[in-house]
Amino acid sequence: MTVVRSIVAMLGWAVLAGVAHAADPMKVAKGDLEQLLPGKTLSYRNVNGVGAVVYFEPGGRATYRTGNAREATGTWTVEGDGRYCIKITSGRTQDHCRHVWKTDSGYATGNGKGEDLQPLSGLD
Q: What range does the record give for the signal peptide (predicted)?
């Protein structure tokens, strides 16, 4: 009887461990991102921790707004490696490229290794 209880307990822990383990984030592929982004407004925190909102217009135009009320316009593309890139052309010119990852809780944005993921809203 003790052996049976031990086996049942081990199976129970194995099931709980499997449920608690989150799946690894998966990078969203270029083609999928090209379908997801047009017409969407995404919200996230940028690499400096400042809130950012980006509107991806169909046709490649972008409007980028940060939490400190800075607004800029430019263009967006999806690169061959699956990063979306925003090229700011108004005011201070700059490029901003990030990957989009699918996680258990939705989408996130981050680097190519998935090490600095920030929650992303607007794609769901």
A: 1-22
